Amino acid sequence: xxxxxxxTDRPGTTPPPGQRLVxxxxxxxxxxxxxxxxxxxxxxxxxxxxxxxxxRRLVEAPGGDRPMALGVDVRNRDFSIxxxxxxxDWLERRDxxxxxxxxxxxxxxxxxxxYSETRRRHPLVxxxxxxxxxxxxxxxxxxxxxxxxxxxxxxxxxPHDLKAALSECFSDGRAGAMGVTFQSFSYKRGVxxxxxxxxxxxxxxxxxxxxxxxxxxxxxxxxxAHVEGDVRFAPFVERVQDLMLDLLPAFREEGKSHLSIxxxxxxxxxxxxxxxxxxxxxLAEAGWHVSKRHGEQERWGGGAAKRDKHT
Length: 311
Description:
Radius of gyration: 25 Å
Helix content: 25-40%
Strand content: 15-25%
CATH architecture of the largest domain: 3-Layer(aba) Sandwich
CATH superfamily of the largest domain: P-loop containing nucleotide triphosphate hydrolases
Shape: elongated
Oligomer: single chain
Order of helices and strands: EEHEHEHEHHEHEEHHEHEHE
Low-confidence stretches: 5-16, 302-311
Structural class: alpha/beta
Number of domains: 2
Mean pLDDT: 83
Strand order of the largest sheet: 1-6-5-2-4-3
Number of strands: 11
CATH class of the largest domain: Alpha Beta
């Protein structure tokens, strides 16, 4: 795979300071839609194929601090290369905006093969052979290709390789861009759907048998102290955390964008909550993007027990 910064005085893959905005473009079939989804997984607010006439208003609209990725190609309503160049010129002049132009390129032969495999019509020539539209589009986009800050040739690139390349270029610097969710649950209600791996916490001593703790949850200090007082608690948590620190980079390298890890106990109220809280805190301190949720407390609408996040 070929990844190249534009040969100008721009700083390659390092954006200037400011709100990050990536324009994603390239010939149809080169992987723009896939790139948009990948950038969304990396934390970008991703918007594809919005009409050209609305793009400036979208950029000017008040919003959050999330970086934004905009997909633009010949399928955008009222698209023209002149409008796209004018948009890039306008964006480059805006203060407080860190613009990068990402161009996904691909050889003509591979684009023809991809259209043949999918049996889709080319948007420029829906009633003619795809090769005619491919050649016309490559010529049409040549001026914007020359202005690209980042050029990725997807001719021999799998979606997995493309994700790795975009992660390298656009990851926000946290420990991978992969998100990890820790979830406590009750075995009485069954294992939650979507769990990638789970651990049984029922071997820890149960606060349920202490009358003064029974109505509390693992978010309460007395319950936490009770569970942490079990001599098996600290070794268990340490081993699971070490396992996660070994496994998470491997999952990330395989292209996984999110991992869900469950911790269960009988009622999902005490032991699993304490373990979830402890491991979520430990992994967040290690630099991972961690979310936590407690299924039983969410069922009760339990205020502070509802979903929380570490970043």
